[in-house]
Amino acid sequence: MGDKLLRHGGIIFTASIISYFFAYLFHFYVARALGPGDYGVLGSILSLLYIFSVPSIVITTTLAQIVSEEKSVGEYGRIKSILLLSVKKLAFIGSIIFIIIILLSSFLKVVLDLPTTIPILTLGFSLIFITILPSPRGVLQGIQNFTSLGFNMAIEKPALLLFALLFIHIGMGVNGAILSYGTAAIVILILAFLPLKSILREESERVNVSIYPYAAPIFILILCITIMSSIDILFVRKDFPPEVSGYFTAMKMLGQVIYFSSIALGGVLLPKVSELNISNKKHDFLLRKTLIYFGIILAAVISTYALAPELIITTLFGESYAPISRYLVWYAITTGLLSTAIILMFYDVSLKRTAFRYPLTLLTPIQTLLLIIFHETLEQVIIVQAATFTTLLIAVMIINRRYNGYLRKDQQVLCE
What is the pTM (predicted TM-score) of this model? Predict the structure, then answer.
């Protein structure tokens, strides 16, 4: 079990690192090719992308749990039915999101201060395919084909970069950068089904699985952390000049390496802890290891940003982005607070602990309200983020301590 945990975790983490590396190459290239103004437009659109893609992220994790249970009893015909049914439902959801975006495009154009609605409509089209992608990926994770899953994750961002290079080269500008997300999703979607050919050959069996008990806490977690990590750029885009929005987007991309590291580690932690918990085996050591690994990453990133912020910003994004460098380390520390809380909440979800949803759902609108009041300077925006994320982390830590206290009491009663 230990070897599998290490191997599977290594595959997914390596795939995530490759994916994030090419994602940053994508942003470095696009930032230079578009300039601060249009790159700020892309940053606003990507914030909407993260929010609208929440259902698909939830489905990935939910499907993995459901499929793993079917795999344990050899019900591969039911797995095929789950796969096909989920594809159909996600395609429907993606289409509905596209229609909603079309209807709200004029409103979003004003809110985001965009010159036209074309970037918003391009986003809606891309979301159709992005929303379907978690179906085959969730099944791959559920049947524990981590090699194929890792390969699929690793090549997604290189495909994104290639399409961005092509579309921007032929003069599509920011619209081409947005369209590259949807085009890459189509290619990755096709490739994700190839390792599932053996599943698709099975005879379909009738399934009647309720996903709500699995999906509800995951949905709350993913929705709230996506909003909390993305909402700042929307206020910056709306209330600051386009150049400042571009600067902030560049800084945010560097800070997000911490956020995405916690998501990758939490995504590996969740199924592994869930499996051990079902088998009544110890699992707290996995949380400790995950926090240690994340702590090493966090310390390395913050130290690097603190020592040479301007060099990092100007080397990766260009001299025109230098003014934002003085905020970089503080934004990284702020992101680290949220990311640590995310790992703890992933651990709770894997054990079907849901008390974290109370501070999480309370602090999400509070954060938005505070940003509505305090957003005159970038310092205020970062301070609001830091205060909200610190409060969340403390609340989640207290909840975990109480859970562990109840667990020890139950174990003492059983021993007696």
Answer: 0.74
